[in-house]
TrEMBL record:
The organism's taxonomic lineage, starting at the top: Eukaryota, Sar, Stramenopiles, Ochrophyta, Bacillariophyta
Protein's name according to its UniProt entry: Helicase-associated domain-containing protein
Signal peptide range: none
UniProt superkingdom: Eukaryota
Domain Helicase-associated: 2-32, 51-112
The organism of origin for this protein: Ditylum brightwellii
Annotated Gene3D superfamilies: 6.10.140.530
Length: 144
């Protein structure tokens, strides 16, 4: 048994009112901490906060740039966007995934493109639009 396991056992026995008053006194004499916050809960809460922060950053990026193709030099957001696509693929394959329905819905609401091919098509479409505009400008300048 490790010290950590022993410490945990003291807390469990104490909560069951099965720890002797002498032992309670001894542990209290060294300022023993009886109630430890659930670290997994805190960790999950922090991850949820980070997820929502990144979603907000992606919204702002989309508003500023008109697309969601985050460059790799914006490492935190780029990695987060890549992770969302990976988790979506895992979900689609029936594997364990953190992509819950609520997250998927929030990303869908801002027009998130799940597949890289969709991004490529979108870039091709934008390129074609600009090219068409360029042709129009060229033709109108020739008419003048």
């Amino acid at each position: 048994k490790t010290l950590g396991q022993w410490v945990n056992q003291q807390r469990v026995v104490y909560k069951k009112n099965a720890l002797s008053s002498d032992r309670i006194q001894q542990l209290n004499s060294i300022d023993f901490i009886w109630d430890v916050p659930d670290h997994s809960w805190m960790e999950n809460f922090n991850l949820l906060c980070i997820w929502n922060i990144r979603l907000g950053e992606l919204r702002e990026f989309h508003i500023a740039h008109g697309h969601m193709d985050v460059p790799s030099d914006d490492k935190n957001l780029f990695d987060w966007v890549s992770e969302q696509r990976l988790e979506y693929c895992r979900k689609e394959l029936g594997e364990f995934s953190t992509m819950i329905q609520e997250r998927e819905k929030k990303l869908d609401e801002i027009g998130f493109q799940w597949k890289i091919e969709a991004l490529a098509r979108n870039h091709d479409s934008k390129w074609c639009n600009y090219f068409d505009q360029l042709i129009e400008v060229e033709e109108s300048s020739k008419k003048q």
